[in-house]
Amino acid sequence: MLTISSARATARPCANRSFSVAPKPRLRVKAAFMGEQVDVAGKGKFDFKQAERIKVGDTLPMDEAMLVLDEGASEPKSITLKELVGNKKAVLFGLPGAFTSVCSSKHVPNYVERSKELANEGVQVIACLSVNDPWVMRDWAKNLGVDTSVVHMMADGEGILHSKLGLLQHMPGLGLRALRYSMLVDNGKVVVLNVEEPGGKSYKISGPGHMLEDLANLKGQ
């Protein structure tokens, strides 16, 4: 369960009964994850908790839902993991945020470009999961030219799904975001999980190339 708390700064009264303005806070921490306490200058303590990280062999929380906003729709619709992946072989990949540099220039485009290769290896569903709202995810997909019938763009707006997966991080200036990762799921169970270092820049093991290698290795077992 996600828990967020922060202490409110108190302004001191001046002699003329007006109030002083607190200085603009400066962030002084790197990305935090797995329930760490984040110290934000001028803001007190920011705490968040999440479940233990999901691992290979675990079953996804299939009843958890995300939001999707279809082209032309005015309101998003809710889709559970069960509805998204069911008993299929699926690749789910998460990233820190829409319109950010690595996510826009590499992570999503790479999965679009290599979607046919993944399909040839038996992958039936490819989905991008991000802690963003569905309007942002729809516009991002349009901006990148993503065919959302090939790569589904899923919004975990409050980060609840990622907190239950243990794949949430706090990024200074951005708040709670998904870690960058890729996951192979078969019939609801995690078969492969590749998680990058916290932050937004690392992109070594969560791309489709690495996933294709994982699929080839599984064939050889």
First-to-last CA distance: 37 Å
| Total helical elements | 6
What is Rg? 19 Å
Order of neighbouring strands in the sheet with most strands? 8-7-6-11-12
Strand content: 25-35%
Estimate the mean pLDDT confidence: 84
The CATH homologous superfamily: Glutaredoxin
Report the sheet with the most strands, covering strand number, pairing sense and barrel closure: 5 strands, mixed
- Category from helices, strands and their pairing: alpha+beta
Low-confidence stretches: 1-44
The percent range for helix content is 10-25%
Count the beta strands.
12
Q: Topology of this structure?
A:
Layout: E1 32-33, E2 37-40, E3 44-47, E4 65-68, E5 77-80, H1 81-85, E6 89-95, H2 101-113, H3 115-120, E7 125-130, H4 134-144, E8 152-155, H5 160-165, E9 168-171, E10 175-178, E11 181-186, E12 189-195, H6 208-219
Parallel strand pairs: 6-7, 7-8
Antiparallel strand pairs: 1-9, 2-3, 4-5, 6-11, 9-10, 11-12
In short:
With 221 residues, this protein is an alpha+beta fold. Helix content is 24%, strand content 25%.
